[in-house]
Every structure is written in C-alpha cells, then in structure tokens.
Design brief:
This protein has about 400 residues and is an alpha/beta fold. It contains twelve helices and twelve strands. The protein has one domain: Alkaline Phosphatase, subunit A.
C-alpha cells in the first residue's frame, strides 16, 4: 500500500488530520518558548455583510443604495450618533459596553478576489491575491516555533488550510472523547500491528507507525487533560455553540493549545438577507457572550483574544432579490479583556469613494491584524511567519 493511498483511505475518517513529528527538515530550529496567550479565530463563512452589521445609519448614501434592506436608527443598538450595531448583536453589545470589543473597519487586501474559496485561501494563507501558498499562517506558526500538533486545534471534522504547515499541522477535533475513542478502535490497533505486512515497505511502515503513535499520544493528552473539566450548559444548541463550548472546555482545562479555529456558515446572502443575517448574527452573539462568561468564570479570559473575520464583505448596493452580492473590504471584531483601543478602532467606510465594482476600498491589510497578534500577543517573529513585514495596529 502506498502512503498516499493509506492516507486517502484512513485519514481519518474519524475527522482528524495529523502530520507526524518524524519530518525532520526543521529540527535544527530552536524551539521557542510558548507563552500562555491564546487566540480563538472565528470565520463568518460566506461573506457577512459588514455594512448591515456595523451600520452607518446617519449616512444618506447607505440608505439610497439599500432602499429595501437598510437598517434604521430605531432598529439598531446605537454605539455613536451615526453608527449602530445590528439588533441581533445585543449579547455582543454587553461586551462592547464593558470595553471588551474593538471593531476594525475597511479590512481587506489589494486586488480582492470575490470567490469564496479563493478569498478564504488568501485569508488562511496570508498570501497576496496572485500568490498561491500550500500552507496556512497558523501552520507556519507551528513550523517556526517547533510546535506540537496540539498547539493549534480546529473544532471541526476536517482540517483547513489555515492550520497546515510545511512540516507540522494542527489537529481537527470535534470533541476530546470522540477523538480519544476513535484511536482505540480495532481498526487503528490493527494498523499498529501491521508492521509485518509484506505489502508495506520500510519507509511506509515508519510513516504509518509514527503517524499513529503521534495521533494516539495527542488524543490521550487532550482527553486526559479535559475529561474532568465541564463547560457551561448555557451555550446555544447549534453547531457554532457546540464549537465554542468545546473550545472553552479546552481552554479552562489548561490544554497547551494556543490557537483555536471555528466557523459559522451561511452568510452568502444573495437573497432574503435581512432574515438570514439576523438569525446568524444572533447565533454568533449569543454564543460569544456565553463563551466569554464561561472564560471569565474560570479566570482564563485575561489570556484569550478572539478574532472574528469573514472572507469578504458585500457590495454596497443591494440587488433585486433583497440581498447583496460579493464585495470586498469588511469589518473585523477583536474581543479581549485588556484591549488598548476599544469600540470603533478606525473610521467607517467612505461610501462616496468605492472601487470600480461598487465595493468598499480596503484601508487596513488583514495581514496587519495577523502581524499584530503574532508580534504583540503571541510574541513570535511575525515577518518569518507572514513572509514579509506588515505594520502593527494598536488594539493589543
């Protein structure tokens, strides 16, 4: 059996993806001392409409371009004389009022790509729009720091490009018990006993054996570390709520993971946007509020930074289906207990100065956000991970 055939057939049908420690290309890189800071990355998948999330209700152009879907002052949560949050974000407003939220506007990149898949790849790899990378910026963070797979976890059944490095990958884990039990199945035990199989040459045996040992070790560590720690029962009963509940259990149990990744799908609102977005933002805000409260109760929120992004925003002008089409620059939410700049980090979009497609122009490169988190929060070499130097922001 060839190695790639084994991976195709067995990886990991249990919802896991592991790259073992046997790859030695970077073993001479000194291991960096990990600090205790953690980052929770959340993607609003599909392209959330930032203009109807952080709403410039005092802007006449906004109302002219969105005659049927514009949100009005009386239906918003006012955060200034000209700006309001979507009413579904009321749970988030409580965190905003405490100074736990910084909203960075006009975040994007040059020559934006309006494909969901390509733009997601750009955000996950931190590449230029015409550059195609095969590894994510979190994966490269693991490479540079010689991090174990448990240092970065995606709470999902499969691993995104974001957590795939050149020499090391993170883990995809839906929950600790499922991961642990899957590695105790007879199927996996039989693999570990298959070293005498004549169809496997020495190279494949070594790859197979080391992969499984590394997987089993990671699963045991996560399970043993988290099995005595339960999370709040107040999380919404949906997929996103379950993801954050799992992450809170991992954080509060003292797991050594530094980067977590989760996502909420459904934001591709070409039609019937008002109802769909209201429902999704409500799920997001309710889950985030419980998550933060869970961390605060366990005295772990001090060391957690939450980053929420979407692969792109929506076009300023509404379409004929009570929705919006793919756009460009968008807002990003940063949530933490000790932010240096709370509230609106910068100016809202200039709706009188759009690009040729009627989209919001970017003012902040998304990689400036990453560079800030890497340098100021995780305290690692951001240039080595992002492959070039980016300016730092001042939210942490």
């Amino acid at each position: 059996m060839k190695r790639r055939d084994f991976l195709k057939q067995t990886t990991f049908a249990s919802g896991m993806f592991f790259v073992p420690q046997f790859l030695k290309a970077f073993e001479q890189i000194p291991t960096s001392a990990f600090n205790h800071k953690k980052v929770v990355i959340i993607q609003l998948k599909g392209g959330n409409d930032g203009l109807n999330t952080v709403v410039p209700f005092g802007n006449d152009i906004y109302h002219q371009q969105r005659k049927n879907i514009a949100l009005h002052k009386n239906d918003l949560l006012k955060i200034s004389d000209q700006v309001g949050l979507h009413k579904s974000l009321q749970p988030l407003q409580h965190l905003y009022d405490k100074g736990f939220v910084s909203i960075i506007n006009n975040v994007g990149y040059p020559n934006p790509n309006l494909s969901h898949f390509r733009s997601t790849d750009i955000w996950q790899t931190a590449s230029d729009s015409n550059e195609y990378l095969q590894n994510g910026w979190v994966g490269r963070y693991l490479d540079i720091t010689n991090g174990k797979p448990t240092k970065a976890i995606e709470v999902d059944e499969s691993l995104s490009l974001l957590l795939k490095g050149k020499t090391q990958n993170g883990l995809a884990v839906t929950d600790a018990k499922t991961l642990y039990n899957s590695l105790r199945e007879p199927f996996y035990k039989n693999i570990l006993k298959s070293q005498s199989d004549a169809h496997l040459n020495e190279h494949n045996l070594g790859y197979l054996y080391n992969t499984m040992i590394d997987a089993k070790s990671s699963a045991t560590y996560i399970f043993e570390k988290t099995k005595t720690k339960s999370a709040s029962n107040n999380y919404p009963k949906n997929v996103f709520g379950k993801q954050l509940k799992t992450i809170s259990q991992f954080i509060n149990s003292g797991l050594d993971t530094q980067v977590f990744y989760a996502g909420l799908s459904g934001f591709d609102t070409h039609a019937n946007q008002p109802n769909t977005q209201a429902r999704l933002l409500k799920s997001y805000a309710e889950s985030i509020k419980v998550f933060v409260e869970d961390l605060e109760k366990n005295n772990t929120f001090n060391d957690v930074l939450i980053l929420t992004f979407s692969e792109f925003g929506r076009r300023v002008k509404q379409n004929e289906s009570q929705g919006t089409d793919h756009g460009a620059a968008n807002n990003v939410f940063v949530i933490g207990k000790h932010l240096k700049k709370q509230g609106l980090y910068n100016d809202l979009p200039n709706l009188a100065d759009l690009d040729a497609n009627g989209n919001i122009k970017y003012k902040v490169d998304f990689r400036e956000v990453y560079a800030t988190i890497l340098d100021k929060w995780l305290q690692v070499n951001d240039k080595a991970i992002l492959n070039k130097q980016f300016s730092k922001l001042k939210f942490v």
